[in-house]
Design goal:
- The chain is mostly beta strands.
- It has a domain of 113 residues: Beta Barrel (OB fold (Dihydrolipoamide Acetyltransferase, E2P)), CATH 2.40.50.
- Helix content is 8%, strand content 34%.
- It contains two helices and eight strands; from the N terminus they run ββββββββαα.
- It has a five-stranded mixed β-barrel.
- β6 and β7 form a beta hairpin.
- The radius of gyration is 24 Å and the shape is globular.
Length: 171
Amino acid sequence: MSLNKNQSETKNIQISELKPLENNLNVVFKVTKRRNERTVKSRHGETQRVCDFIISDPTGSIILTLWNEDVDVLKEDSVYKLSNGYANVFRNSLQLSKGKYGSLAEDTTVFKTINEENNRSTERIADPRRDSNRNRGRGNSSQRGSRNNRSSNRNNSDNFEDRPVHRRHNW
């Protein structure tokens, strides 16, 4: 089977194996807790429903965030399969998302035990998307002062009159 650049094979994975920014994931899980649903405004001014679920399997647990009509799909203590989902980092927390191209379906898997102790969402994780772009095009960050250093340098004895004069022409 050949795949074009927009396709890749999905991967069956357990919660303990999730890594930030992995996609095309298939995860079988049990819903252990539904948190309070909330509404948020999108960038375009639309009202969106969002709800976080704590989901678990025998290897660990994690937050699964669902939006709009997907909020009504999951029920506590039921088992589901997320197909083509992805692992995301939100506020330095690893989370699982269905996304636009993922799907949820009830599953017949029976878990003898689930592991709620290994909560992957409580691990503090730097957001790889932000870290990889942090210094792009700005030179070495160690050569620049932080925002606080730059503002405090303005208040030093470096007055405008003390700065060298740069002239373009020798007239």
